[in-house]
Amino acid sequence: MSMRITTNMVMRNYNKNLSRTVGGLESARKQVQSGRRFSQSYEDPTAAAKGAVLDRRYARNGDYLGAVENTQKWQDTQESVLLELNEVVRNIDRDYSTTVMNDPEGKVGRDAYAANLRELQRSMINTLNVKYSDVFVMAGNDGLNAPFTFEDGVVKYRGLDVDDPANQEALDKMAKESSYIDLGFGLSFDDKGEVISSSAFDSALPGINIVGYGKTDGKYSNNLIVLAGQMAEVLEADEFDSEAYSELWEHFRERGETVSDQFAKLGAKTQLLEATKERLTKEKDNIYEQYKSTIGIEEEEAITNYSWAQYAYNVALKIGTSIIGPSLLDFMN
C-alpha cells in the first residue's frame, strides 16, 4: 500500500527545515557578533558556569588595573611635589650659606637674601598644597582641605602650629596616617578591624613628614619652612649674627635630608605599582585566553560558520520557490 504525499505534507516539512535553517543562521550571526560559541547557558551548562567565573575575574582584574593606573597618577603628583621641594632645599643649601655671610653689600645684600627666603617659604607652602583632581595630595586623611597655612610667620599643618610642643602628639598621629587602596594583594583585616598593611597599598604621603615638625633641643625648628623664615630673620637684623645663621643653615641642611628619604620611599612604592600593573596585565591576558578556550570561538571559524549558514539559507529559499506552485495571484499579474 503506497503512501500519498500531499502538498500540505511537503509544505509542513519545508517550513520546519526552513525554520531550522533560519535558526542556524541566527546562531552563526551571534557567534560572529559576540565571539562566543553559544548564547544561552543551557546550550553548554559546564562551559557557561566556567565562563561566569572568568567574567567575574576579568571584571575584578579590570577594577584593580584601573585603581593602579589612577594611583600612579596620584603618585606622579606627589613626586612632582618632592621634586620642587628638593629643588628649593638644594637652592638654599647652595646659595644661602657662606655666600650670604661674605656678601660685600652688607645689610643691603642680606636684606635681598632675606626677601628671597620669604618667597621660597611661600613657594614651599604653595607646592605642598597642590591637588590631584579635587584632593590635596599632601594632606593625609583630610584631602578636602589645604594642609598648610602660613600667617604672621606661623606655619600650620591642618590648623596646628608645627612648632608648638602642645601639638606634638596630634602631629605624630597625623604623620602616621595611611590611606589604603585594594590593588589585589588579598585585602584583609586584623582583629581590630584595621587593614593589614601588607594586604593593601598605602597611597598616603602626609606633607608634615616631608617638611618636619617640632623642635630639636627646644631651640631649632625641625620644619624646613619655619627654618627658612628664621634664617631670613637673622639676615634682616641690624646686627648680623653669623654664628646663629651658620647654625640655622646647618640645621636646615640636616633636615633637608628628609626630602631625599621620602624620595627613596616613594621610589619603592613606584616600583611596587609598576610590578603590580605588570602582574595584573599578564593575569588579564591569561583570563582572556582561558575565556576564549572555554566559551569563545575563533573569528575565522565563526565567519566560516556564518557563511555556510547563509549559503544553506539561500539554497532553502531557492528550493522553496520550486515547490510552491503558482497561485491565482500569479496568473492575475
Report what the structure shows.
This protein is mainly alpha-helical and 333 residues long. 65% of the residues lie in helices and 7% in strands. The strands form four sheets. A three-stranded antiparallel β-sheet has the order 3-4-5, covered by helices on one side. A two-stranded antiparallel sheet has the order 1-2. The chain has a two-stranded antiparallel ribbon with strand order 6-7. The longest helix has 54 residues, at 242-295. It is rod-shaped.
What's a concise summary of this model?
The chain has 333 residues and is mostly helical.
Which geometry do the CA atoms define?
rod-shaped
CATH-defined fold name = f41 fragment of flagellin, N-terminal domain
Widest beta sheet: strand line-up: 3-4-5
Mean pLDDT: 84
Keywords:
333 residues; mainly alpha; f41 fragment of flagellin, N-terminal domain; 3-stranded antiparallel β-sheet; two-stranded antiparallel sheet; disordered C terminus
